[in-house]
Predict the 3D structure of the following.
Amino acid sequence: MIPKEPQGPWTSRDLETKPRRSGLRLIVWLGLMIAIFATVSMLARLFPGRASSDLDQAYVLWNAALLALLSAGVVFGARYKASEVARNIALWTGIAFALLLGYAYQDELRDAGARIRGELVPGYAAVDAAGTVSLIAGEDGHFHVIGEANGVTTDFLVDTGASDIVLTPTDARRLGINLGALDFSRRFQTANGVGRGAPFTLARLSVGSIVLTDVPVSINETDMSESLLGMSFLKRLASFEVVGRKLILRPR
């Protein structure tokens, strides 16, 4: 009786099928690379100038090379069935398309993210590609915004009824201002009666993309819930308007 040839990892059957599988996987991988290249070329034609700088082009090439390396590992790295290979190809193609589409629409996605953040946290200003700042009204119906005064994060209330930009004593201390050295000689009418304030000049005031320098402000003598952006701030803009729950500020 002639014994059967032992079946092992290096039998003639495996040696015959292995080159076939490798050749098929190479064809599949090359097809995937061609599809990715075609997608990149299509997006480059649809969105000219999106990757005009050397840094942007290097970023695209780096991601394409990384995707080629990862996809090669998936296609050649293990013994997958045909259905698994097809599923992995579809998955990587979808990931590549999503990344490229996200890069092409990065400005639009950034604007959408800013709008969503403005809805969830009304104090954050949404800035579009033109530099226009949009604020969403809070639950109290007023427009609150997080800005910076001399580089220090400061909460403001946009108040068209106030003539000046007014800092609270607490915010002034956070800016390093010595309140004892100020002259509270200004008189102004408030909802609680006559108040006193001290003149001061901020080196820099920013709200979103709006940046003002050498800004005259008043520092209130008594404490307030938050600092105010009054008409002296709004008059330094190109325009402003209220549309529903949104306040739109356009810088000069």
